[in-house]
Structures
1.
Amino acid sequence: MPTHRTARAIIFDLDGTLADTFPLIVRAWNVALTPVTGKTYSDEEVIARFGIPDGQMIVRELAGRPAGEAVDAYHACYEREHAAIVRPFEGIESLLGELQRRRVPIGVMTGKGRGTADITLRQLGWDHTFAAVITGDDVAGQKPAPDGPLAAAKKLGAAPADCAFVGDSPADIGAGRSAGMISVAAAWHPVFVEALRALAPDLWAERPADVLKVLG
């Protein structure tokens, strides 16, 4: 459903929205967990476990068994193989550049942990791009709760109603709505597209440049 509201600030999800990190997350998960559980996890099985920071995902998966070595192995693989696997989605760099040119405040709110978020932002050259970076480690309520988007808006100095939240998952759309923001579907990532359609976000962005429509 189109929105008649316009945004003054834009907050982005990270995984699956700004950068194609899912293959690296699955790779690091199997490097860390397979030696412990004896199981090789499919992409779908790993994605189904999303929703809390990656370290907490591993602790939950091991259900009381010691998790420290697995968490360390996950982070080591994530950093070691990032450059070979992860790329921004086509059009993202141009979008971020245009938003900077227009002096639009931009932030990131991701459910992943601070450690891996910082790795991705640094390796993609975005460590000084966003005025606010909020991770799953920084908030009590994970998406679709509004805690993260609200924290990002506060750091940007923007009222929630003046913000758009851009994400590729149903949890992103729910978080943006719960925070009173304009919800924008990052439909360039296909994993959750059908579920996103059912939620009728305020703006359907087929490609990153479509996000600019939310500025009016």
Note: Strands lie at 9-12, 106-109, 132-134, 163-167, 182-186, 203-205.
2.
Amino acid sequence: MSADPRSTTPGAVLASVGVVLLLVGFVWMSVIGYYPDQLPVIIVLVAAGALLAWLGQRMYQSAKRENALHRIKQRDLGKA
């Protein structure tokens, strides 16, 4: 375990970018409309957004978990 707590910012930013891509894809499909030749671009956009949102969420949760374990370790070392 590292000495410094990890930042949750990269995971939050990555998840936010993924959610924005998902929203752009869904708005494009449902509100704006699309031609059939644009469908592969929209599918890639939505898939990339879903992947980035999932990876960002995993990074965020991993950093939070490591920070909690770091605080527990520091607390336990302080009691000893």
Note: The first helix runs from residue 9 to 32.
